[in-house]
Amino acid sequence: MAIEVRVPTLGESVSEATVATWFKKVGDTVAADEMLCELETDKVTVEVPAPAAGKLIEIVAPEGTTVGVAALLAQIAEAGNAGPEEVKPKKGAEAEAGAKEGKMTDVMVPTLGESVTEATVATWFKKVGDAVAQDEMLCELETDKVSVEVPSPVAGVLTEILAPEGTTVDAKAKLAVVSEGAAAAPSAPKSEDVSPAPAAATPTAKTKDVEDAPSAKKAMAEAGLSSDQVTGSGRDGRIMKEDVARAASAPKAPAASTSAPTPAAAPRAPVPAEDAAREERVKMTRLRATIARRLKEAQNTAAMLTTYNEVDMSGIMELRNAYKDAFEKKHGVKMGFMSFFVKACCHALKEVPEVNAEIDGGDVVYKHYVHMGVAVGTPSGLVVPVVRDADQMGFAQIEKKIGELGLRARDGKLSMAEMQGGSFTISNGGVYGSLMSSPILNPPQSGILGMHKIQDRPVVVNGQIVIRPMMYLALSYDHRIVDGKGAVTFLVRVKEALEDPRRLLVDI
């Protein structure tokens, strides 16, 4: 009986794929779940496993063919019908090894969180042949937001690593295989066994008209590589996504040779050898690269504009001085400035709801809640944890939540859920001494408030020049959805609430 191999579900909005590589040929014996071929879409690489053990008797869609969802790719004759040579009994050492082999358990990419579709394998803490305990950490993945640890699902031996360090994997990818209950091998396998055999296929000379895989093009753009810097392992030298990962993780040339321009969008000017020898080249982390990409996307997508104002902080400082001891004694947290700014912004967002909205295609999505993002600088880069339903919180609740999220951010322990769903963001550059800046939007949000350094300055009050603690405020907004009037009104309402905090109590 022939078993059909069909195109699996490719994901939402993806209707077709290209057959990139066949790892088996007609006549080959295949095991159940063994990878037969790889499909490329404009978003991800999809592996197609064998639905059953047997012999590959027909390949319907050869490499380079464009196929739709559920299209027929190949046919397999079941093991019982594949001929006597396919079901030979194991002998000698092979049988002994098979007897000792435990149940094979797949190690899959854990849940990455909403809107996160891929991750990069940063570090493997175990190698093939190592014994592992249940829940012992096997490897660490990096996403564009956080690092994710991958524990072993069972106790046993790590028998195979499918995604070596530097590999980009999707949210449903298989990372490794653990033999449940098996004993560790006396000696570790050779290092080359770590790499997936299919990806290490001998590369062929690339034909001039061969089109590289869509995901490979995207990966090359992200890694700053050109096609002539990557050796393709696909048919006719076609560059695959894994080829890009290997090229990106390859050892760099010595510092003295870095005088050549780097493969970036704007090539670097030649550097004298004596200067190059004193430079250090470090690959951008995934988090830093994503920060750069998202900020540039915000500039390219939104019609971004910034409006400024200044606020007299005397009222808040007097209030804090009067109640900070009693506040800390009752609530167990210090009264800071951030809770005032969060409350003032929530107050202003009710009057100017478009600053709390976002554009989704041809629609404007108005949010009847405030999930306040609070930008936090960490050693790894900028992250924006979210205080959910901040408009329903009191001052003490806000201070506690911001303190908790800030500590978790600095320790690198924020979860994906804690950094998603923000509707407006506050960025406090004042803690670093910034006097004035224009913050960049955090897409898809339509507004971000920049706080700055508090500085004593002469101002005119009732016709008299007095010295007051002043702070510049900056509101960057998406002019596609927020008009100038709305932006200025929002910033004025924030200023009024901060200069007279009693307004927050009576909601005016």
TrEMBL record:
CDD domains per UniProt: lipoyl_domain
Residues of the Peripheral subunit-binding (PSBD) domain: 211-248
Keyword Transferase: yes
Positions of the Lipoyl-binding domain: 2-77, 104-179
Cofactor: (R)-lipoate
Identification of the protein by name: Dihydrolipoyllysine-residue succinyltransferase component of 2-oxoglutarate dehydrogenase complex
EC number from the UniProt entry: 2.3.1.61
A single Gene Ontology CC term: oxoglutarate dehydrogenase complex
Function: E2 component of the 2-oxoglutarate dehydrogenase (OGDH) complex which catalyzes the second step in the conversion of 2-oxoglutarate to succinyl-CoA and CO(2).
Protein's GO biological process: L-lysine catabolic process to acetyl-CoA via saccharopine; tricarboxylic acid cycle
Ranges of biased composition (kind: Low complexity): 196-205, 246-274
GO molecular function: dihydrolipoyllysine-residue succinyltransferase activity
Keywords: Acyltransferase, Lipoyl, Transferase, Tricarboxylic acid cycle
Source organism (scientific name): Frigidibacter albus
Family named by the database record: Belongs to the 2-oxoacid dehydrogenase family.
Pathway as given in its UniProt record: Amino-acid degradation; L-lysine degradation via saccharopine pathway; glutaryl-CoA from L-lysine: step 6/6
